[in-house]
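Illustration 12: Phage Tail Collar Domain.
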Amino acid sequence: MNYCERQLEQDLKDAYSVETLDQYRAHLREVLRHSRKTLQDYVDADDDSVPVPLPIVRDILSAEEDNRNTKEFIDNLRTKYSPSPQLALRAEDFDAFASKVLDSAIVADWDRCKTTCSECLANASGRQNGISYEILGYRKGIFSITFTYLPERKTDPKHVMVSKVTVTGGGVLNEPLKIKRNKILHRYNRTTQKFRRTDPKTDVAIRIDFKGREGLQLLVSDRRPEAGLPVGTVLSSILPWEEYANAANDTLSYDSRLNYWAPCDGREIEGSRLQERTNRARAPDLRGVFLRGLNQFADDKLGAALDKPRDPDPRDADGFQGDNPGAHGHVYYGGRAHDKSAIDYVHVEHTENGAWYSGDYQQTKERPTEKNPTGETRPKNVAVHYYIKIN
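Figure caption equivalent — predicted structure in token form:
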């Protein structure tokens, strides 16, 4: 689950005493298996005829009564899922269903979280002690950081207060001051502060202390923060480098310390995170070659490919392998005459066999084949550009 789903799960626990978000999702799916009359009879009788908590069913019926569109939406879902009673509720249907029947305050918090936290999901980098941060563009010595308070526990407050801001190293706070002493950060609300570099070659150390809770510490270099796919990832694209760089937000002139991506053309990647991880000074050169999987990807029980290595050469990733036509043979026969003994014509016996045979008997001269194909040996293929993630 991402962060916003965890927050919704906590709200559902408070509202309906359900254990998990999946449990609530299963309850909504169960509701679709019953008619509106059956659900109303269940609420009126307060019995066990429907295996869904009474408060959930009551809120759904109330939402249908208050809004005709909600009623039509749920009827359409019943029709959609009735042919397959065991079919689970799809994610998009769950989101729409829950948004129409949950308490408006829960829905508002959920929507606000999804809107403001598109860049700060739980499995993303850039979050410390409940504070998400996103480092924004660097231009003319100025960069910005957006901070968002994301409560992590049920007991966390709805807002936190800044007690102290300290900036050292190669930068200072830039006016206007948005993050300062006594500044209140409300949950899900973004606050963006600008910083100015005083020394482009020195990292900027930023510390923000909060009243009554652990603070946040950042070290910002002149390199853009790592984001997206891990370094070393190779992607194929039909876009040439200039267009790909623009699409990947690599619009500056190529700089291996700053660019996220590099063409796989053997160019230098000095100073990149990929170079730090692999100690390779250049990107792999994949121009005009096919890619081939290694015999073994991980040191686990799966081992090498099948019962014997498919690749006969032991290699590392990015290892080059030259041409090889492989083991094969050609059989070539000369032109044949009739298989008759020549003695029938010239009446002379062969000294070894007692006869002189025509045809291909004891041919020893090698002859080249004719009308041979030209060019390289290759399978059907489509040309692409290859790019590698370096930062």
